[in-house]
Every structure is written in structure tokens, then in C-alpha cells.
Write a structure and sequence with these properties.
- Helix content is 37%, strand content 17%.
- It is of the alpha+beta class.
- The chain folds into two domains: 53 residues; 191 residues, no CATH class.
- The radius of gyration is 22 Å and the shape is elongated.
- The model has no long low-confidence stretch (mean pLDDT 92).
């Protein structure tokens, strides 16, 4: 009866399509032997080494993030264009997401059980320390899970971090155009904390080009923009104010 009560308690609290970490379950009093018994009874199913799912569920990327954030104390979060899309800031640019963009702290790796899965969208994971791990995140309800995702400002900075190799300049500007209600105080904090000169210069260039009112409220003298020029593209246009070379179509307004 005790075991039956325990499995009922576990299954009733288990969010639909969520992944659970076996290490976390063991900490909650579910021994390896007990979990093996649950597997034999087809209540739970292995989901790679170190993770399990509820029998019959179809785990999602959000369900995997639930395990990482809520049970594994991970810094990995939805970021970049995917976060902007979830926040309603980029959905007009594409009909269907092709990639699911994740960011994590420098040196932090996706667990193999997540990295080796075939998801509906291709997971693009970026490990970086160009922004501190805790700032600029928001709580977002996603398919039954409350997870931390990048807020609009942080997500925009993450997009620019991926420029130009993995993110298009012009698309970044189109996203920036829609960010007319960013909070200057948060923008200021993130720019001060950001360690990428390229990202900061490009962010400010796009914000000024988009003529956002919050741009005028920033204290740019407190933002370290480094020294020297940054050539971001070949055969582009040099912008003296921010010492960056950007694509011609962006600089000349031919969008």
C-alpha cells in the first residue's frame, strides 16, 4: 500500500511531457531499485542515461528544461530568437520555428540524455559567459511548465552574440524595431554587465537606428565599448560613431 501510494503521489505531481532526473528522484526517496520496479510495471520509461519520463508522454524541449532548471539547478535557458518568439516579439518574422535556441553558462554542457534526443526542432545550444547567468531572465509559462527564459533585452543581446554566423543582421534589426517598450534601467544594467564589445556596439547602433525613446535615457558613458574598430562583415559600411562595419543594406536603409 505504501509503494502504491508513493507511485500515485509521483505520477499525480508529474507535469505532462516533463522529464525527471533520476538523481533528483533518488534525493526524494525513490531508490534505484524502486525506480526499476516502476519501469518494469511500465509506469515510467528511461529517457537516456540519468532521466526518465512518464509512460505515454511525449517529452518536449520545455519538458527537458523543466528537469534541468527545477531539479538540476542548471543555468541553461531558452534564449535568443526562440525566447523573443515565446515573448511575442519575433513571431511575425517566421511561420514556424526551425531551431530551438538555448544558452547556458560557460563550461556548462547539455546532458547526454538531452543532447542525443531527436526533438521536433533542432536544439542549438550556446555556452557563454558574455552575460552573467542570473540577470535579465523572466518566468514564462510554456506548455504547462513555468520556466526561466531570457527577457526581451537579454534575448536581443543573445541574438547579436550569434551574429553574423548564426543570426542575420537584418533580421536582428527587424526584431529591434519591435522592442519599443524596453525598460531603460534593465537595458542599462545588461549593457554594463555584458562583456562582448561587439554585442554592445551593435545593440546600441540598432537601437539608435530604430529611434527608440528609451535609447535617450541610457547613460552610455557607463558602458564600456572598448577601443579599436570591429569589422563585422566584409565589404560593408563603416559606422564611425560605434566603430563597426555593418552590411550595406542595413546601413543604407535598403531593407
Amino acid at each position: 500500500m505504501e509503494n502504491k501510494s508513493k507511485i500515485n503521489q509521483l505520477l499525480s505531481a508529474w507535469p505532462k511531457n516533463a522529464v525527471y532526473l533520476t538523481s533528483w528522484l533518488e534525493q526524494q526517496g525513490y531508490s534505484t531499485q524502486l525506480l526499476n520496479r516502476y519501469k518494469k510495471s511500465n509506469w515510467i520509461v528511461s529517457f537516456g542515461n540519468g532521466a526518465v519520463i512518464k509512460s505515454g508522454d511525449q517529452p518536449t524541449v520545455e519538458g527537458a528544461l523543466y528537469a534541468l532548471q527545477k531539479q538540476g539547478n542548471s543555468e541553461i535557458h531558452t534564449g535568443g530568437k526562440t525566447a523573443l518568439s515565446l515573448l511575442g516579439k519575433a513571431h511575425y518574422l517566421e511561420f514556424k520555428r526551425q531551431n530551438y535556441v538555448l544558452f547556458g553558462a560557460k563550461g556548462e554542457k547539455l546532458p547526454k540524455w538531452m543532447a542525443n534526443q531527436k526533438w521536433d526542432e533542432e536544439v542549438k545550444y550556446n555556452s557563454s559567459s558574455f552575460l552573467p547567468p542570473k540577470i535579465g531572465l523572466v518566468e514564462k509559462e510554456m506548455n504547462g511548465f513555468t520556466l526561466q527564459v531570457s527577457g526581451a533585452t537579454r534575448a536581443m543581446l543573445e541574438c547579436l552574440y550569434l551574429t553574423p554566423k548564426h543570426q542575420d543582421f537584418v533580421e536582428c534589426y527587424e526584431i529591434m524595431e519591435g522592442l519599443n517598450n524596453l525598460r531603460p534601467k534593465q537595458v542599462q544594467e545588461l549593457l554594463v554587465q555584458c562583456t562582448s564589445v561587439k554585442v554592445k556596439r551593435l545593440f546600441l547602433y540598432l537601437a539608435k537606428k530604430a529611434n527608440h525613446s528609451w535609447y535617450e535615457l541610457l547613460s552610455l558613458e557607463k558602458v564600456d565599448l572598448g577601443s579599436g574598430k570591429r569589422k563585422l562583415v566584409e565589404d560593408g559600411v563603416y559606422v564611425p560613431e560605434f566603430k563597426i562595419t555593418v552590411p550595406k543594406e542595413l546601413a543604407n536603409g535598403e531593407l
